[in-house]
Give the backbone structure.
Amino acid sequence: MPNTQARQAIRHLCLILGDQLNRDSLLFEGFDPQKDRLWMAEVMEESTHVPSNKQRSVLFLAAMRHFAQSLRDEGLPLDYLSLDTSDLSPNEGKATINSAHQSLTSALAHSLQQYQVQSLKLVLPGDYRVLQSLKHYCADRQLPLELLADNHFIAKPGEFSAWQKGKKQWRMEYWYRQLRKRTGILMRGDQPEGGDWNYDKDNRGTFSSQGPGLLDEALLFVADEITQSAISTVTRLLPDNPGNLMSFGWPVKRQQALQLLEFFIAKQLPLFGEYQDAMWTNEPWLYHSRLSAALNLKLLSPLEVIQAAEQAYAQGKAPLNAVEGFIRQILGWREFVRGLYWSLMPDWHSMNALDARHNLPDFYWTGQVDMRCLAQSIQQVLDHGYGHHIQRLMVTGLFAQLWQTQPHQIHAWYLAMYVDAVEWVELPNVLGMSQYADGGIMASKPYIATGRYVAKMSNYCAGCRYKPDEAETDNACPFTTLYWEFLATHRARFANHPRLALQVKHLDNHNAEKRAAIAKRAQWVREHYSATNYLANHQT
Ligand code: FAD
Ligand code: SF4
């Protein structure tokens, strides 16, 4: 049947992706409501290409729906494809969504039937996969695609690649210093505030046996009607995805994100530095800001967050070690991982420098595990989609590393489980910093440790059936056993490594009897935890 309906002529169809919810984006520059249209779509693929935690899916849908509402309130022309208006069709007893809502490109194809479009416009996506699929889609149809720079970030387009040129190694610390000098953040003239660039030495505090004491109650937001609608969508369409929605308190609009920033600066920033690395049973947030999701959705700009912290320092409300430590995470790490992501993709995705071959243990998806540190850290992710940096690096990340997990499996887990997971920031942290899958491009050494590290930084071990100091006994901590196994496996590689040689020396001091006992215990550990490629078997 020929399409007899005339298609509406449009100059630019302007795409807004789920993590591009900033009204000051370059997409709106020169936007003409008479000639252009905004376009947003909720698509299943974003919750199923890895089985997204329900908390994460609700966050994205709720934030997109709020942003769409604010655009409509401004009177801007917007097409919004909601999963709620999609038809469900029964398929082998399961409801499946119609094809228009399966993927970004199928949703686009559906919309483009109505329009005669001169070009598609969008800000550079945060995910290489999305960029490629849009590029291919447009190339196949000879549809011009205009990619705009992402003005959310502090680094200017091209600044990171210019900095990389001629350097043998790319280390966050030097990139961070360059950005501080260029922006004047925490600078006195050309010198760093306080005389040092980095106050990490003051940021390794642990709690006494009494724990953190009474903490301010976390600022959690009550779900309004729009967020409730997102909760129902996820409950209806993604019942088998991991995570739960017993509570949901994430900021889903700019006004809430600003409230959370204010709360953090007033209540948590002063002690953020000192207890940045500490962990405590049933205390998921401690002094961490919980701002990553709002930042990654672009409800907040990194510069405004940094300026709020800098102002607290200038007003004497927070000490320098806390303020510098916090600003380094955002100005240093966050900008660094983004630069590295775009300079190393797509190769980074498939790197496996340590030839890690094991399946990720199944308990990562369920939290059902007898190691207390992991049970706590994973249950918290299932409940809230959150873990702070040290839980991610030195509990879930460390165990996956010592288990010698296939990097793409642990990458999929992190991408699926955390509310702030967008690939440009997740992948470098997982494959680079936590798993050393790139052989040292991002981190100067693998972050490996025995259970003693967890014992020092938390109270998890106190209630655990295992003993962090023991490697080969019946009570041996699996971290400690697998630490020695890891070193033995990679002995040749790390024997002369400047930062690991000492650890290899300790390994060499083990006599044959101890080595055999550790190897036997390692075998027990591997048999005790099932690792069946759970994701492949449970893919929704
Ligand atoms: P805070 O501790 O309050 O820190 C302040 C802010 O600094 C964060 O909100 C975040 O925007 C930024 N930040 C801190 N560390 C990093 C870092 N290493 N890289 C980039 N930004 C940083 N962060 C994500 O945003 N998304 C992810 O998917 C993600 N995956 C991670 C996976 C692993 C294995 C590791 C080790 C880290 C990961 N991080 C990720 C970084 C960091 O753990 C989170 O940003 C932080 O825990 C978020 O909690 P918060 O907002 O309370 O952070
Ligand atoms: Fe984790 Fe080992 Fe401590 Fe148990 S003893 S909580 S497994 S580090």
Notes: The longest helix spans residues 320-344.
